[in-house]
């Protein structure tokens, strides 16, 4: 998300079982049910050695032991297609997956084809459970022997569903899909709860008073939240992200006098604070935790730091960490990119400051007189993932985009009036361009703080961005209002979902089509993927912007060229709408993209190293 000049301006079969978990609410189990799960294998006659029952096959020749192909184990197998003419074969079995269990579908697949193409999927094999497509393979996935496929189907626990395989062949050049040793194993779930993201619907109320320079703030914060998970919530974690910028002995962010829970020890380099709840919070129940808060802004032209008389205060308010089926997301701070994964929340923040200081902030702000020489700015914001502000004697100019979005440009000393006007013009154009492609901007006003001393180029927060004087950088940061702000993602584990999408949106807004940009791709290793996490990129920092920003946006340009401009436009707008104020995952985007086209995208994801 941060867009340094060298970042923002750079130009296997698809397994989507995670889609099932996203689309099937209510299929997860309680902790008691998980403990009671009895491991089992629920597919009958998965090796096809006991005849055809209970399989339903499209013809009597699907389950076979005839010559021409061989079994993975035993003597029988399922042979779908292989005719060299227009043909479809299918095979299915109804199974019951016990409640409270983790479940994994496995099968061995050999693909033998006479097709010679390296780019077109003429013949396709699909694995489904119920109406959900789990995986698609094609002649492009040919192999010399059997390959084991493994797909998590835990989302279907407690249901009776049909496991189905189908093969479709076109009019010439045979492809045989040979299937054997199908199994669906269940086991006790090992995750701490269901896959629901919680604590949900946070509402933050904050009241802070600054010192005379805006570099120190003290006051109180409280957060009300609901447990959305079927597993009771015994604790929460607050992320004190800006403690990265200090030491544990002298942290810039201090929390004290906690109410509504008991504070534990700081962890994750003092950026995470556990708060034990007095009693476990059941599903659907709400509670409030409050605490006194101190913020000390360090020196430095950073996203949290002061540059001369101007303080930038990003990620300073403690926010709730996210828990899901993987447990608590307590990733470390990364200075190379972002770790700030959070759910959409409401904020009401009151900032008491000297009248000589302006405080651009997330949300819509109103000013009222405070005590002598002071002003109280109240900022309110709905469905935002964080809250940021700045403080200083900024020069402010304002305008409204043709689409009706109020925009404020706040400049530090040394920014010329012509540069400020240029950034206002850019912001007006960018916010309308992105809104036209992805949906109307929902956050009321948009504030941009301009400082050419930012080493990182630009940084986005909801309704509030930090930036250099740069048309490209500002267009990029405003694009993040959609890809990170409105459509959220796990920024530490899936940074491409906001950075690549935002760089792609920036290209479109500035009239660039990314022609031939994939031609310059050169991978550093077999482990390098567009979809790698910040843990990988922090260890390979020189490749981060090249791959995530550059290769990522080029992959999206290639996808547009493959499925067509209209399909891509409709895909991104509908995808944004479906994930509005929610969280995007790689699996969900891949599934949405596949649903938007009749072209099999399996080889596309493999070629572009989009994994997940």
Structure, described:
The structure is a single chain. The strands form eight sheets. This protein has a seven-stranded mixed sheet, with no helix packed on it. Strands 1-9-8-11-6-3 form a six-stranded antiparallel sheet. Strands 2, 4, 5, 7, 10 and 12 form a six-stranded antiparallel sheet that branches. The protein is built from eleven helices and 35 strands. It is 20% helix and 35% strand. The longest helix has 23 residues, at 541-563. The chain has 612 residues and is α+β, with helices and mostly antiparallel strands.
Which helices and strands occur, and which strands form pairs?
Blueprint: H1 5-8, E1 14-15, H2 18-23, H3 31-36, E2 40-41, E3 56-57, E4 63-64, E5 77-81, E6 87-96, E7 101-113, E8 124-129, E9 132-138, E10 147-152, E11 160-169, E12 175-188, E13 200-210, E14 216-226, E15 233-239, E16 253-259, E17 262-267, E18 272-281, E19 286-296, E20 304-307, E21 310-313, E22 319-320, E23 323-324, E24 327-328, E25 345-354, E26 364-369, E27 374-384, E28 389-391, E29 395-400, E30 406-411, H4 417-438, E31 446-450, E32 458-461, E33 464-467, H5 471-479, E34 488-489, H6 496-509, H7 534-539, H8 541-563, H9 565-578, E35 583-584, H10 586-595, H11 602-607
Parallel strand pairs: 13-25, 30-31, 31-33, 34-35
Antiparallel strand pairs: 1-9, 2-12, 3-6, 4-5, 5-12, 6-11, 7-10, 7-12, 8-9, 8-11, 13-14, 14-19, 15-18, 15-22, 16-19, 17-18, 20-21, 21-28, 23-24, 25-27, 26-27, 29-30, 32-33
Helix pairs in contact: 4-5, 4-6, 5-6, 6-8, 8-9
């Amino acid at each position: 998300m941060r867009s340094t000049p060298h970042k923002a301006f750079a130009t296997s079969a698809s397994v989507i079982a995670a889609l099932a978990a996203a689309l099937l609410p209510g299929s997860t189990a309680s902790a008691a049910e998980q403990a009671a799960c009895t491991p089992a294998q629920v597919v009958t006659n998965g090796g096809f050695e006991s005849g055809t029952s209970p399989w339903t096959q499209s013809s009597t020749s699907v389950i076979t032991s005839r010559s021409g192909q061989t079994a993975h184990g035993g003597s029988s197998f399922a042979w779908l297609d292989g005719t060299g003419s227009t043909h479809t074969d299918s095979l299915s079995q109804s199974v019951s997956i016990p409640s409270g269990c983790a479940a994994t579908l496995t099968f061995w697949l050999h693909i033998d084809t006479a097709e010679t193409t390296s780019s077109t999927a003429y013949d396709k094999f699909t694995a489904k459970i119920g109406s959900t497509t789990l995986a698609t393979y094609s002649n492009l996935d040919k192999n010399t022997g059997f390959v084991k496929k493994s797909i998590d189907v835990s989302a279907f626990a407690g249901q009776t569903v049909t496991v189905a395989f189908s093969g479709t062949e076109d009019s010439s050049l045979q492809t045989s899909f040979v299937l054997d040793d199908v199994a669906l194993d269940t086991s006790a779930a090992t995750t701490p709860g269901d896959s629901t993201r919680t604590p949900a619907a946070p509402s933050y109320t904050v009241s802070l008073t600054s010192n005379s320079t805006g570099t120190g703030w003290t006051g109180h914060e409280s957060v009300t939240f609901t447990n959305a998970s079927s597993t009771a919530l015994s604790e929460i974690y607050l992320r004190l992200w800006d403690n990265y910028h200090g030491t544990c002995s002298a942290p810039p962010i201090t929390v004290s006098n906690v109410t509504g829970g008991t504070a534990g020890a700081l962890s994750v380099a003092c950026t995470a604070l556990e708060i034990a709840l007095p009693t476990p919070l059941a599903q659907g129940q709400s509670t409030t935790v409050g605490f006194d808060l101190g913020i000390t802004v360090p020196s430095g032209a950073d996203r949290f730091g002061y540059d001369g008389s101007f303080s930038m205060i990003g990620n300073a308010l403690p926010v709730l960490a996210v828990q899901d089926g993987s447990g608590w997301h307590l990733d470390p701070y990364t200075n190379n990119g972002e770790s700030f994964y959070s759910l959409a929340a409401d904020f009401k923040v009151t900032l008491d400051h000297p009248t000589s200081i302006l405080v651009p902030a997330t949300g819509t702000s109103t000013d009222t007189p405070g005590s002598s020489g002071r002003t109280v700015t109240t900022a309110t914001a709905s469905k935002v993932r964080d809250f940021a502000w700045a403080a200083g004697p900024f020069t402010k100019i304002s305008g409204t985009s043709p689409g009706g979005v109020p925009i404020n440009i706040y400049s530090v000393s040394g920014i010329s009036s012509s540069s400020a006007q240029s950034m206002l013009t850019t912001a007006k154009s960018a916010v309308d361009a992105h809104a036209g492609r992805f949906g109307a901007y929902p956050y009321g006003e948009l504030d941009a703080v301009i400082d050419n001393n930012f080493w990182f180029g630009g940084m986005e927060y909801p309704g509030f961005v930090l930036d250099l004087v740069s048309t490209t950088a500002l267009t990029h940061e405003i694009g993040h209002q959609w890809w990170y702000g409105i459509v959220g993602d796990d920024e530490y584990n899936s940074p491409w979902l906001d950075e690549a999408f935002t760089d792609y949106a920036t290209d479109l807004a500035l009239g660039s089509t990314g022609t031939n940009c994939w031609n310059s791709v050169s991978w550093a290793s077999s482990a390098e993927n567009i979809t790698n996490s910040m843990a990988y990129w922090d260890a390979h920092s020189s490749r981060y912007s090249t791959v995530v920003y550059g290769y990522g946006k080029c992959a999206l340009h290639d996808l547009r060229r493959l499925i067509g401009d209209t399909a891509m436009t409709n895909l991104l707008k509908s995808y944004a709408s479906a994930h509005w104020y929610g969280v995007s995952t790689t699996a969900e985007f891949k599934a949405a993209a596949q649903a938007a086209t009749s072209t099999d995208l399996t080889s596309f994801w493999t070629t572009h190293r989009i994994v997940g």
